[in-house]
Amino acid sequence: MSERRGGSVRVALIPRTAEHVRIYWKRIQDEEIRKRIPLQSLSLEETLAQFEASRRPGAGSFGMGIEADGVYVGDIWCYGIHGEDEKTAMLSFLIFEKSLWGKGAGSEAARLFCREVLSRYGIRRLGAFTYAENIGSLKALEKAGFLEKERFLEEGKLSVYLEWQKPSADTR
């Protein structure tokens, strides 16, 4: 478990469990959350199957739960983990506890997670997408060291692609 303070809350990354997945799935049915982040419309059973697949050896995805002051408040994960040569993946995170939006929990979780996947998988570059109107997500990614690379229209919404690269001097 990795832990640091993010704004006024203590943020920790924890191993995900099937119970976390159930809580997460229920919380992301919220309309306000769904309009802020592109999410697949999966059933609980499909979501649990994806979680189980991510736990298998050689899986192309990896995720952790996010705790703030000891309470489970969201998830962070990477997917599209490429093999030995590229060392890249895509990052997504979601804080479903709205009272924490804008409080630094997302940026701190992203910082911790970048270190975790660097250590665990040797990931050198992470990409991330967010809607341009989701200022909180955009700021959280930038605070975590992601740099904006491109803006584009996707399904009628202005989206932003950002990238994080392994620091030249590893400061883990």
N/C terminus separation? 14 Å
Number of helices: 5
H and E order: EEHHHEEEHEHEE
Radius of gyration: 15 Å
Task: Kindly estimate the percentage of residues that lie in beta strands according to DSSP.
Answer: 35-45%
Strand order of the largest sheet: 1-2-3-4-5-6-8-7
Q: For this structure, what is the CATH homologous superfamily?
A: Gcn5-related N-acetyltransferase (GNAT)
CATH class: Alpha Beta
Number of domains: 1
Approximately how much helix is present in the residues?
Answer: 25-40%
The helix-and-strand class reads alpha+beta
CATH topology value: Aminopeptidase
The major beta sheet can be summarized as: 8 strands, mixed
Counting DSSP E segments of at least 2 residues, the number of strands comes to: 8
Sequence stretches where pLDDT stays below 50 over 5 or more residues = none
Task: Please state the overall shape, judged from the principal axes of the Cα atoms.
Answer: globular
Per CATH, the architecture is 3-Layer(aba) Sandwich
Overall average pLDDT? 89
